[in-house]
Specification:
The structure is a homodimer of 312-residue chains. With 312 residues, the first copy, chain A, is an alpha/beta fold. Chain A is 24% helix and 26% strand. Chain A has 10 helices and 16 strands. Chain A has helices at 40-47, 64-67, 70-79, 94-105, 164-169, 177-181, 218-223, 242-248, 253-263, 284-288, and strands at 2-8, 22-27, 30-34, 54-58, 86-90, 112-116, 123-124, 137-142, 150-158, 186-188, 191-193, 203-210, 229-233, 268-271, 294-296, 302-305. The first copy, chain A, has a 7-stranded mixed beta sheet. Chain A starts with a strand and ends in a 7-residue tail after the last strand. Chain A binds chain B through residues 12-16, 19-20, 38-39, 41-42, 45-46, 64-65, 67-69, 71-72, 75-76, 79, 96-97, 99-101, 103-105, and chain B through 12-16, 19-20, 38-39, 41-42, 45-46, 64-65, 67-69, 71-72, 75-76, 79, 96-97, 99-101, 103-105. Chains A, B: Zinc phosphodiesterase, which displays some tRNA 3'-processing endonuclease activity. Probably involved in tRNA maturation, by removing a 3'-trailer from precursor tRNA. Chains A, B: The active site is at residue 65. Chains A, B: Its EC number is 3.1.26.11. Chains A, B: GO terms for molecular function: 3'-tRNA processing endoribonuclease activity. Chains A, B: Belongs to the RNase Z family.
Chain lengths: 312, 312
């Protein structure tokens, strides 16, 4: 079970009802914050999202509209009593940004651990915190913006169905079932029992993709394959703005929709709207005409994704 | 004529309807921004305040809740086409803060001119921009917080009433009247005419005080003398919180009111509320019982102060 909440859907500058770029992925008591534009804290408060649960802040790039909420959020987490570490993830260039942010915040009562991520090198989330399901991972991928930038795919795999009957037949004590369910083998009376002996075929997990700022590109297309939800750059509304979008390293509503369709994503939420777009809903058809499951994102829009229950 | 707008009235952390510390003073097409907490841009947008008019940003001190809106605002002013210089004023320590902010914003399309101000050394505002009335000045004063901090008194003096009859009698051509009105002497047919010859006694001007974060202190008491409006630290609501207020370098509603009364201020607006204060109006009596002209500030609260018209 994974709850995704858009916190800020504005590009460039905040508007009264549109904070700058940020989204939160919550899984149990844990979570990831994607980007942290100015206004992220207030938006989270408004949306009922508790950012204390964040294990990591995952930055897509270092343009101001994606990072200027960081100093304030880091201080607030400290004021709220955080002592456990917070990972600060992002593409190359992170150390300079972190140095400037740290100069503004001063010392914090918890460790911030900056870590540069490389496209295609996944991060196991149970390395950040034990609360994540086994195998959960964050896969950074290269996007196409004006600066070095990443998008992120969050994957929660789901093991096959556990068979208590099989486990009992193999003599595995109940206390060890959890290890097998987590994919670890166990020793039983001198024998080794493998997970595959007690688990059915792996089931469909959950995956969500946060594009960051990008023009349509192979990295995003691949990352969005079969995704349950794609949060995608939709800076420009109209097809006639494609040249402008390309120039600035962004996408139009239609381009995002076409990519979601081609990738076989289940849902698409448009975000990162230019301040020129007063009401994104006016242009929803630009995306829905191409990909009917497209929706306009807005600050506070949220969905809880459940594992599919396949009927036998 | 001077319009004061509270942009953010929160202390420590932003709340959904309360941005962090900031206030704008507008005079004609010009203005000063006092402090710049996170959310200042969006609050200004909401309140209809155009921050492009700012000639200076006047920081009271460098705690995050007073400065973390800076990087975003500076970038937005650039995106909106600013090319004219912006003064960045504050107490000692400004260069480190400016270095960190600049590292986050990158190059801006207009010059930012940091300038450290010392208590008691006024800044002539016509040095920042020609739009300010003659003699307008910003007077920084020492406040009592946990770090080096300033408050600001903005003064718009008002010359005596100009007498066209006197000017005509002295043979001053109409084109030169403006110079006399601005306090400059003019040469007329070999004679020098002084402003005092054509102006009545100086009239009451306008003054507004922004306390920043402070416990009651002599600097603030002096600055608030006869002020038309005092925007004052009111972090804590209740008298029993005075020890806490003192410890953290803040004031209670009642302390701010007592100071306003003692200083003979005309109006007091409370601001910089602790997040523990859900609705400041519930505690208004704590201030109004001591100083009836006290009002609770809120984001977007605004007043236009006019010069007094004294009836002859």
């Amino acid at each position: 079970m994974l709850t995704i909440t858009l916190l800020g859907t504005a590009a460039t500058m905040p508007l009264p009802d549109r904070a700058l770029s940020a989204a939160f992925a919550a899984c149990g008591g844990h979570g990831l914050l994607w980007d942290c534009g100015e206004g992220t804290q207030a938006a989270a408060h408004r949306a009922g999202v508790n950012l204390m649960r964040a294990d990591a802040i995952c930055l897509t790039h270092y343009h101001g509209d994606h990072i200027f909420g960081l100093p304030g959020l880091l201080q607030t987490l400290g004021a709220q009593g955080r002592t456990r570490p917070l990972a600060l993830l992002g593409p190359e260039g992170l150390s300079d940004i972190w140095a400037a942010v740290r100069a503004l915040t001063g010392p914090l009562p918890y460790p911030v651990k900056p870590q540069v991520l490389m496209p295609g090198q996944p991060l196991a989330l149970d390395a950040l915190s034990e609360g994540w399901p086994a195998g959960a991972r964050l896969v950074p991928f290269a996007t196409k913006h004006r600066v070095k930038s990443l998008g992120y795919r969050l994957e929660l795999p789901r093991a096959g169905k556990f068979s208590p009957e099989q486990a009992r037949a193999l003599g595995v004590p109940v206390q060890q079932w959890k290890l097998l369910q987590k994919g670890q083998s166990v020793a039983v009376e001198g024998r080794t029992v493998q997970p595959v002996q007690v688990l059915g075929a792996p089931r469909r997990g959950l995956s969500v993709v946060f594009s960051g700022d990008t023009a349509p590109c192979p990295g995003l297309l691949q990352a969005a394959q079969d995704a349950d939800l794609l949060l995608c750059d939709a800076t420009y509304a109209l097809p006639e703005q494609e040249a402008q979008a390309r120039q600035w390293g962004h996408s139009t509503f239609g381009q995002s929709a076409a990519l979601a369709a081609q990738a076989g994503a289940k849902r698409l939420w448009l975000t990162h709207y230019s301040p020129m777009i007063t009401d994104p809903e006016e242009y929803a058809e630009q995306a829905q005409g191409i990909f009917p499951a497209a929706e306009c994102g807005f600050d506070g829009k949220s969905i809880t994704l459940q594992y599919e229950e396949v009927q036998p």
